[in-house]
Amino acid sequence: MMQVAEKFLPRVRRNEPMSRHTSWHAGGPAEVYFTPRDREDLRAFLHSVPADTPIHFVGLGSNLLVRDGGIRGVVVATQDALLRLERVDETTVYSEAGVPCARIARQCLQWQLAGAEFFAGIPGTLGGALAMNAGAFGKETWNCVVSVETLDRHGREHTRVAGEYSVSYRHVVAAQPDEWFAAARMTFTHQPGVDDSRLRELLARRRQTQPIGEWSCGSVFRNPPGDHAARLIEATGLKGLRVGDASVSLKHANFIINHGAATAADLEQLVLKVQHEVEQAHGIALQPEVRIVGERP
After folding, report:
1. Is 289 labeled as catalytic in the residue annotation?
2. CA count, 13 A, side-chain hemisphere, 101
């Protein structure tokens, strides 16, 4: 069991159920769950973590499946610590990684900035959006990024320009291993008079087509080139397919719902079953968009 310095103990929980911190409401315990006060507290904590201890960063847990055996090592929860969001100049916005993407969308409109509306369709924090190049409504996070600030496992800060990363659809290759996103500078279009009509239109479309309000992780699979995962799943007749208390959404086939009592094993088994059935029917191997971590019991 990892030893934790006394000064961090008030912000550490041991064997913390990750079902409390994921939008699927499933998953086993984190060995150590740390909620930093602020960035300086986080830097000091990272510096104290032994070199052989795994570290996982978690925001809103909206794109995450934690297996029932839980997570060995440390889980760092950023959503209450890295919350700075400010306008740097006429078109540039600085946001820390714990800021919910929906807040970025709303605040940019307040600043009369256009081009950030798509963030309202990403149900997580900026940190997660940076890590996977999250997108919605045909737009992607890294299209906006100028530079990022990162933290390494020694607690050191780094500033890196966007060009140091290899970015593609729902995939980001980091400039250096063992660095986590702490913040980003993003650029948008200054558009005096811009209102929230486009944002409201996008959110209305989302409510009509996605199972908002149910326990899901958002989109489960990446869209394959030239097609849509939801179309392939629906064409295979998998809407409503069930494992335990988990099922493929009847409203949007690329969503898997926990109806209240699904285990992480149920959810993972359903993910694998959908992959198998689609590949058998269409010869296409769907790739998960959801991040699966942790150990089986």
Report:
1. yes
2. 28
Tell me if residue 160 is catalytic.
no
Catalytic residue among 96, 117, 268, 289: 289
Domain assignment present for residue 172? The answer is yes
The answer to pTM > 0.85 is: yes
User: What value does the mean pLDDT of the chain take?
Assistant: 95
Annotate 100-111 with b (16+ C-beta within 10 A) or e (fewer). bbbbbbebbbee
Question: Considering its fold, how many domains does the chain have in total?
Answer: 3
- The answer to whether residues 90 and 176 belong to one domain is yes
Mean pLDDT of the region 159-173: 95
Among residues 95, 170, 185, 249, the one annotated as catalytic is: 170
Annotated catalytic residue 291:
no
Query: Of 95, 219, 247, 249, which one is the catalytic site residue?
Result: 219
Q: 88-116, pLDDT tens digit by residue?
A: 999 999 999 999 999 999 999 999 999 99
- Domain with 118, as residue range(s), is 85-190
Does any domain span residue 202? no
Pairing label, strands 246-248, 189-190: unpaired
Quick one: pLDDT at residue 178? 86
CATH classification at residue 117 = 3.30.465.10
